[in-house]
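If your schedule permits, I should be very grateful for your opinion on a structural question. I would ask you to consider whether the tokens describe a fold that such a sequence might reasonably adopt. Thank you for your consideration; the sequence and its tokens are set out here.
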Amino acid sequence: MEFKDYYKVLGVPEDASQDDIRKNYRRLARKYHPDVSKEPDAEERFKEVGEAYEALRDEKRRKAYDDLRKGGWSAGQDFRPPPDWDSSGFEFDGGPGGFSDFFESLFGGLGGARRHGHGFRGGTPPRGGDLRARIELDLETAFDGGKRRLTLDRGEGGRTLEVSIPAGVRNGQVIRLKGQGRAGPAGSGDLLLEVLVKPHPWFQVRGRDVYLTLPVAPWEAALGATVSVPTLEGRVNLKVPPGSNAGKQLRLRGRGLPGKPPGDQYVELQVVTPPARDERGRELYERMAESFDFDPRAAFDG
């Protein structure tokens, strides 16, 4: 079997932080997810990325792997574990498609059976390994919660499960379904669903807070107005104070993602200037230029 360069698979340097490893893994997992990717080798790349992340996300496994690399091993070389290599002390969760012979030769091939640092020898029979999968949600579903049907079709016989989505679930959060993983002598493992919240055309989410850029007309910003604003619960009225400038941020308390406490919605004003499409429009702008003693660039003067 060939030695695998897990850093190259994830596209990170060997001194990458755990945060950079996690970010690159999530980016590549979304890119090659077989349910959405158009790449011809998406499923294989998806498995490779998952295996590389499993090897590097745990500090103990990463250190052992780094020690091998320091010993001169590199990608593509014919590999056999050193005679003193012991895979029984490593912990990992089995993946949806299984891992390569290279990974299992380093870290054990029993999936969840080794998750507590022991195998079958003379101990309590292990439960089955955990499975990992991803579930993609739109922001409205993440906000409201509810039921979703999920089909596991890679090596699981086409099982269809009904998943309860908690209201306010966030991107990257893991939903654990007890007993829906691999079967084992002491019972089945769990299914760990990582939530991927799709980008929204209007809203951005940071933690539990929701952010919206709201276009307003110059007269609404200058004179003040009550305007209709979209939120994840529907439209609400918002008062724009007189004399508001572009970039001013207003807060709608409790209009973010549900939680304890719930998040807020922040509305950033964007002043939009209507175009002078005809003679009348140009005359109005000319009269404004004559009427106002206003220099928007005064701060740049000496």
The chain has a mean pLDDT of 83. The chain is about 25% helix and 25% strand.
